[in-house]
Amino acid sequence: MDTGVYPRKKEIKVIIMIERTLVLIKSDGVLRGIVGEVIRRFENAGMKIVGMKMVWVNKKFAEEHYKIHSKKQFFKTLVNYITEGPVVATVIEGVHAVDNVRKIVGSTSPSDAAPGTIRGDYSHMSMAHADKNKKAGKNIIHASDKSQTAKKEIALWFDKKELHTYKTVHEKHVF
Fold first, then answer.
1. Residues 6+ apart with CB under 8 A from 127
2. Per-residue pLDDT tens over the stretch 132-167
3. Does the annotation mark 142 as catalytic?
4. Does residue 105 contact residue 143 with C-beta atoms inside 8 Å?
5. Catalytic residue among 96, 142, 170, 173
6. By residue range, what is the domain housing residue 58?
7. In terms of DSSP H, where are the helices of the chain?
8. N-to-C CA span, the chain
9. Which of 41, 65, 54 is nearest to 89 (CA)?
10. Is the residue at 12 inside a domain?
């Protein structure tokens, strides 16, 4: 006889991870006039900008931002690259923002970045070519690589009062 009572399937607890990440549109992206296109990619994915400003990075600040690379041979060119023109600094918020932003951005080396990613669509230089010619690997954009890194980078680039909380219409559908 069917009692209408069935064993419950194991309940799976899903943790929605709303996080923030730092995205820098470097001077080559600014000077090429593709800032709006870059930002559009994140907004179209349902992420939101909670902080944004344009800055001209000085050498000391650049060295602090890239200190993790200070012992690497490309450190000097990296510092020179980020200080050669204005940078648009943004904080992007969304579900698993760090990982999702990095997917949209593409591989660090533009020559390895897939078509459809920011780097795959707007740059093509290989890091091997850049290193051989003692040039910066111009790759349009920086995106935090891990959640912990994102927290440190956001604190370096933004004061708390520069970060905003608000609801978008997308949050009903994508958060």
1. 108, 109, 111, 137
2. 777 777 889 999 999 999 999 999 999 999 999 999
3. yes
4. yes
5. 142
6. 25-163+170-174
7. 27-31, 35-44, 59-65, 75-83, 97-105, 118-122, 127-132, 147-157, 171-174
8. 44
9. 54
10. no
